[in-house]
């Protein structure tokens, strides 16, 4: 890997990869196969600091295309071919970059396939973008709860494979908490449907032929024989981390077995997700957003631990650096009066605290003591000096959009790269 920027025309696709693409085409691959410099260059970066030039980029049309790609790559002659799935390319660690072939699931495999409101789930292809899904669900009064900042680009395939979570994870958890079923294509092109099963069924799954049986036998053996090591090693965090979550395979009393705990967060290294059935959450009827103003970052952080006790749906801190950068952004005039103190006290950091629920009175009960405390102590050094409350959807959206812009604003900081 190399640090950007590095724009240098590179040679043609390697002979083996060239051959791989030709055979794919001859065997009826329906999507697009691209080796042109422009397409490779675009997918040589994501939201990380890295740039890695792929040999080719392919855009599968459907699950059969994915199966064909993986089946072919498992042949002896193509053992050296490496494949990396890609969604929106918003990952921040270079997870979707490769020197091999990028398999971009976002261009064609982006359909919402089935909605079951009675049972509260939706079935999607991996290239569906989070905002696309939630815009569709909104009229039905439900939503997919894990919420990442780049929701306008991040795909469900990418969110599953990074076990993404964001605003609202305090109460809604992360993506893996909302997965009911994953349809995957394995490294030899085999299809696999993974759901939570009870312990009795594991023995049946272990008898399966092909890679699937091997997977169940291996995972069951590992999580049982290394139980203590896994228990002692894995941190118990509500916002987990990307990686193989061995601690999540068995439930507390070991009565259920969930392979999806491993698949989610596996960064595309275990299987290609071709479809997902996801649990939906009812949209709360009421929302209140509280913006609290502070003279310093330390004051805001110290206060955050008190604010969390009021059980908000989300809490986020925007520090002086981001607020200063935001002043030069087009969004600032729209949020200025809510993030600045009307009496002119310098506001260097803010906390955004959202409360949601079905009864506005319940939310007010949580928010009023906080506001009273601020009014009482606003002239005491180290305490918050002001606040703004809104229940207006547009204002709430604008304020969260300011938060969403945070990483992008930091990325635009002038200085040496
Ligand atoms: C400004 C900013 C803010 C962010 N905020 C958050 C946040 O709040 N919380 C958070 O968790 N993350 C956050 N992220 C990280 C990133 O947005 C998430 O990880 C997102 O879920 C990635 O989705 P994507 O579609 O862009 O995936 P990509 O970046 O394209 O891929 C991510 C991983 O998923 C794999 N993958 C993609 N599709 C498939 C598939 N069909 N089958 C198997 N593997 C697949 C890729 O190989 C790769 O390993 C943020 C990123 C940015 C730039």
Could you outline the blueprint of secondary structure elements for this entry?
Layout: E1 2-3, H1 15-26, E2 32-34, H2 37-42, E3 50-51, E4 56-59, H3 63-73, E5 83-86, E6 101-104, E7 112-116, E8 121-124, H4 130-138, E9 142-143, H5 156-162, H6 169-172, E10 179-185, E11 191-195, E12 197-198, H7 199-206, H8 210-225, H9 227-233, E13 256-257, H10 260-263, E14 272-279, E15 281-282, E16 286-294, H11 297-308, E17 314-318, H12 320-326, H13 332-339, E18 349-357, H14 360-377, E19 386-390, H15 393-404, H16 406-411
Parallel strand pairs: 4-6, 5-6
Antiparallel strand pairs: 1-3, 2-4, 7-8, 8-14, 9-15, 10-11, 10-14, 12-13, 16-18, 16-19, 17-18
Helix pairs in contact: 13-15
The chain binds flavin-adenine dinucleotide.
Flavin-adenine dinucleotide binds near residues 88, 165 and 166.
Structural account:
By secondary structure, the protein is α+β, with helices and mostly antiparallel strands. The chain has three domains: 2-104, 2-Layer Sandwich (Uridine Diphospho-n-acetylenolpyruvylglucosamine Reductase, domain 2), CATH 3.30.43.10; 112-281, Uridine Diphospho-n-acetylenolpyruvylglucosamine Reductase, domain 3 (2-Layer Sandwich), CATH 3.30.465; 286-411, Alpha-Beta Plaits, CATH 3.30.70.2190. Helix content is 35%, strand content 20%. The protein has 16 helices and 19 strands. Strand 10 (179-185) and strand 11 (191-195) form a beta hairpin. The two termini are 15 Å apart. The site of flavin-adenine dinucleotide (FAD) has 34 residues, from strand 5, helix 5, strand 14 and helix 16.
């Amino acid at each position: 890997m190399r640090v950007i920027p590095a724009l240098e025309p590179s040679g043609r696709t390697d002979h083996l990869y060239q051959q791989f693409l030709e055979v794919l085409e001859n065997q009826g691959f329906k999507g697009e196969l691209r080796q042109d410099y422009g397409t490779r260059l675009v997918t040589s970066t994501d939201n990380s600091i890295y740039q890695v030039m792929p040999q080719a980029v392919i855009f599968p049309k459907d699950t059969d295309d994915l199966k064909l790609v993986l089946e072919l790559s498992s042949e002896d002659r193509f053992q050296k071919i490496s494949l990396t799935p890609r969604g929106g390319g918003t990952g921040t660690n270079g997870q979707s970059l490769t020197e091999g072939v990028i398999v971009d699931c976002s261009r064609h495999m982006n359909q919402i396939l089935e909605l079951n409101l009675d049972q509260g789930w939706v079935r999607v292809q991996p290239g569906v973008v989070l905002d696309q899904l939630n815009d569709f669900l909104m009229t039905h009064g439900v939503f997919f709860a894990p919420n990442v900042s780049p929701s306008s680009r991040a795909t469900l395939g990418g969110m599953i494979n990074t076990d993404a979570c964001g605003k609202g994870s305090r109460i809604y958890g992360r993506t893996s908490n909302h997965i009911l079923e994953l349809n995957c294509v394995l490294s030899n092109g085999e299809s696999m449907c993974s759901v939570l099963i009870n312990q009795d069924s594991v023995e049946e799954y272990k008898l399966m032929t092909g890679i699937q049986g091997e997977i169940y036998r291996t995972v069951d053996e590992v999580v049982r024989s290394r139980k203590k090591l896994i228990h002692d090693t894995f941190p118990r965090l509500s916002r987990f981390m990307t990686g193989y979550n061995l601690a999540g395979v068995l439930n507390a009393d070991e009565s259920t077995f969930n392979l999806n705990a491993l698949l989610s967060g596996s960064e595309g290294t275990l299987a290609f997700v071709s479809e997902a059935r996801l649990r939906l959450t009812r949209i709360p009827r009421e929302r209140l957003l509280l913006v609290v103003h502070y003279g310093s970052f330390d004051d805001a952080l110290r206060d955050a631990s008190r604010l969390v006790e009021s059980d908000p749906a989300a809490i986020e801190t925007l520090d002086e650096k981001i607020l200063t950068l935001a002043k030069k952004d087009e969004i600032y005039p729209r949020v200025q009066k809510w993030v600045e103190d009307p009496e002119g006290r310098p506001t260097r950091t803010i906390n955004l605290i959202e409360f949601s629920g079905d009864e506005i009175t319940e939310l007010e009960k949580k928010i009023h003591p906080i506001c009273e405390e601020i009014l009482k102590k606003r002239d005491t050094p180290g305490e918050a000096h002001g606040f703004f409350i809104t229940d207006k959807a547009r204002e709430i959206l604008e304020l969260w959009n300011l938060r969403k812009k945070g990483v992008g604003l930091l990325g635009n900081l002038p200085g040496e790269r």
